């Protein structure tokens, strides 16, 4: 085997006690939180958040002006919005670039952790939710989990995604990095 596979296998063997419910669900939630904190650190380190907020507010104001111009069909307002469109597009482009900078730092640990966790949890149910969701939504069976004693078992990816949706914005909000525009 190659060196990376050897390292992954050693880590999988070390983490084997965490491969079954309920410890698996807790461990995955903690890993999710840790990766979110790494992402927050990278964003704080490589992104000027004040400039980003100011740019977002300017784009939002321009979008409202554009909406008003289209609604009223005022030619003067439409002309003004069209003149600003190029600058707003450049502003959007710079904001997108600024958002991608932290990914250079965050993406490598994310891929490494996911490859280790995928090897650890391949083909296993990591958490059991206490209701039979597959009765109401039969297409979920096999896609995100399977029926288990006491409810419906979720796979690693389904549980990670669910925890990420539930905790992601809650973790980012105190650091001023909420995904919503306020």
Record keyword descriptors for this entry.
3-stranded antiparallel beta sheet, 182 residues, mainly alpha, 3 strands
Give a description of the structure.
The chain is mainly α. The protein has one domain. The protein is 70% helix and 8% strand. The protein is built from six helices and three strands; from the N terminus they run H-H-H-H-E-H-E-E-H. The chain has a three-stranded antiparallel β-sheet. Helix 1 (3-14) packs across helix 4 (75-121) and helix 2 crosses helix 4. The termini are far apart. The relative contact order is 0.15.
Put the structure in a nutshell:
With 182 residues, the protein is mainly alpha-helical. It has one domain. It contains six helices and three strands; from the N terminus they run ααααβαββα.
Mean pLDDT: 88
Helix share of residues?
over 70%
N/C terminus separation: 50 Å
Any idea how many domains? 1
Main beta sheet, described?
3 strands, antiparallel
Shape: elongated
- Determine the strand fraction and express it as a percent band: 5-15%
Radius of gyration: 22 Å
| Widest sheet, order of strands | 1-3-2
Instruction: Please identify the structural class as seen in this structure.
Output: mainly alpha
Number of strands: 3
Order of helices and strands: HHHHEHEEH
**Unreliable segments (pLDDT under 50, ≥5 consecutive)?**
none
List the total number of helices: 6
């Amino acid at each position: 085997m190659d060196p990376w596979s050897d390292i992954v296998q050693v880590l999988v063997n070390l983490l084997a006690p965490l491969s079954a419910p309920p410890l698996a669900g807790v461990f995955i939630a903690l890993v999710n939180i840790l990766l979110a904190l790494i992402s927050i650190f990278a964003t704080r380190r490589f992104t000027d958040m004040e400039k980003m907020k100011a740019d977002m507010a300017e784009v939002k104001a321009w979008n409202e002006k554009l909406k008003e111009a289209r609604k009223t069909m005022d030619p003067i307002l439409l002309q003004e919005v069209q003149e600003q469109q190029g600058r707003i597009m450049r502003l959007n482009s710079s904001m997108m670039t600024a958002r991608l900078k932290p990914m250079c730092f965050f993406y490598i640990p994310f891929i490494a952790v996911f490859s280790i966790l995928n090897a650890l949890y391949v083909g296993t149910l990591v958490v059991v939710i206490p209701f039979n969701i597959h009765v109401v939504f039969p297409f979920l069976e096999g896609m995100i989990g399977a029926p288990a004693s006491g409810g419906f078992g979720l796979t690693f990816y389904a549980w990670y995604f669910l925890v990420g949706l539930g905790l992601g914005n809650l973790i980012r909000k105190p650091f001023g990095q909420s995904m919503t525009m306020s």
